[in-house]
């Protein structure tokens, strides 16, 4: 793996030199965009909107529009904005894991200690593991400030970039139904949830869509037709809710007995 960010984690007066690696990878197939008429690849160009000519990467700069002109920003300007945050993941507080809503999480990064940071790295890792807490930290990467949580995953420190509060839309704009549900229905649903509750095994969950798509691609390449199963999802009518809950519960119980 190649590190994407080098710097320091700090908490209190303790500093830990680290390297940051992407903790996830895309699993989607590499598909090209083509012209449907001749299957030629579609190319995207960086074009000057005044001259219409293509611009090379080395000639592209970033600018902030002000009135009718641009303020051009150099690489040093992004670092100067907050030199410390460009080099340091600064843990500002610790919170309970249970306090964090899943909707905040965006992307995980693994952290590895650099030379002379091994002991302090293990210190932070073991302390977080024993307390069940997460460190709340901020840092700057790729000219953007990130809010993050630092925890432990399989003996490694992992940093989760999370969303700022103003990046989460207000769900009050949704048209949510105002329909009463009976206690009996809720109790039945809770029983069903209990029946389906089991230990979470990360490795049991696979990305099957890509594999299925690859099978279709291979079949098409050999001139074969693939059989498509018809599927139609229908909402459960409110009048059938209890019956369907009961049927689901009975089905799960029978499956457990059989196993």
TrEMBL record:
For this protein, the record's SUPFAM superfamilies field holds: SPOC domain-like
Q: Specify the Ku domain's residue ranges.
A: 52-179
Q: Which residues form the signal peptide?
A: none
**Keywords, A to Z?**
DNA damage, DNA recombination, DNA repair, DNA-binding
Give the UniProt record's GO annotations in the biological process aspect.
DNA recombination; double-strand break repair via nonhomologous end joining
- Membrane-spanning intervals of the chain: none
Cite the NCBIfam families for this sequence.
Answer: Ku_bact
Q: Which family does it belong to?
A: Belongs to the prokaryotic Ku family.
- The protein's name: Non-homologous end joining protein Ku
Gene symbol here is ku
